[in-house]
Design a protein that fits this description.
Layout (H helix, E strand, L loop, with lengths): L1 H15 L5 H23 L31 H37 L1 H15 L3 H12 L3 H28 L2 H8 L4 H37 L11 H7 L9 H22 L3 H4 L4
């Protein structure tokens, strides 16, 4: 009995270390809600994204139109739900591009060292010296604005930050005894990265992925607000704010609703990162 009680006591902290607190759960629910909306939008929206359903421009909230209507009389609830597909989808794809390339190259540079690390780090430093918003504006204006182009440009912009973060973590792990032993055994670079480095930096990298996602959502929304992001007839949340900015003096929900959507998603992701379970946050220790 004493042994069972001791085992239970010892196991409880381990389980607790992987639990979210209340703030983490609320944030996770909000994120999952927006993800669900993005996936199911074509099937659950009351109206089409371009359907003009009312003659009352910048209409107020009502039972028929819970978030009012926009400057053309289109249902804002439907447009925000459709907009989630582009805001969440493009941002997620760009985040995966940035973090996959950045983390892979960062770990490879840390493990390889030498000229490869030096050349790659100097190239990344040069890329980082270009202001992200200026780079995005010039690239989109020069190449054109399409969804694949936006994904690629946003991914490239945030690859250097992901690279530097992953490299800094990997350099510390690379000096540990178990990595040295693996080198002595003659393990290949791919094994060192996959089996020794990545598992020991996974927690901080996961948190960094969330931060990159937030940055990309905000930059994408800014580009769309300037007219260089998602183009009509499609619309993301940033373009919804831009096209309905004329309703701001009237307190139209058509302006406030997409702004609230952007804020709710980015704040929820930030809070989730801040409240990750302790075992995940400390994975590299």
């Amino acid at each position: 009995m004493a042994i069972d009680a001791a085992n239970t006591t010892a196991a409880s902290p381990r389980r607790a270390g992987y639990r979210f607190n209340l703030t983490g759960w609320i944030s996770l629910i909000i994120i999952l809600a927006w993800a669900t909306v993005a996936i199911l939008a074509p099937y659950v929206t009351p109206y089409g994204i371009s359907d003009i359903v009312d003659t009352d421009y910048f209409g107020s909230m009502s039972l028929q139109f819970p978030l009012g209507t926009d400057y053309l009389g289109r249902d804002m609830l439907s447009r925000i739900m459709f907009g989630a597909r582009y805001t969440v989808g493009i941002s997620l794809a760009a985040t995966l591009i940035a973090c996959t390339i950045g983390v892979t190259l960062g770990m490879a540079a840390a493990v390889t060292g030498g000229w490869f690390d030096t050349v790659l780090s100097r190239f990344v430093d040069a890329l980082s010296s270009i202001p992200s918003k200026l780079f995005a504006l010039v690239a989109v204006a020069g190449v054109g604005s399409s969804i694949p182009v936006l994904m690629l440009i946003l991914g490239i912009i945030y690859t250097p930050g992901s690279y530097r973060f992953a490299r800094a973590l990997a350099v510390n792990v690379n000096t540990t005894d178990f990595v040295t032993v693996a080198r002595i055994r003659g393990e290949r670079l791919s094994y060192l990265i996959r089996a020794e480095i990545l598992p020991n930096i996974a927690g901080p990298v996961l948190a960094d992925v969330g931060l990159r996602f937030v940055f990309i959502v905000l930059l994408l929304s800014g580009l769309s607000f300037l007219g260089l992001g998602v183009q009509p007839p499609e619309a993301d949340w940033g373009s919804l704010v831009r096209e309905n900015i004329g309703g701001l003096p009237f307190g139209s929900p058509a302006v406030m609703a997409p702004s609230f959507a952007i804020a709710s998603l980015t704040i929820a992701v930030n809070l989730l990162i801040d409240n990750l379970p302790q075992k995940i946050r400390d994975r590299s220790e």
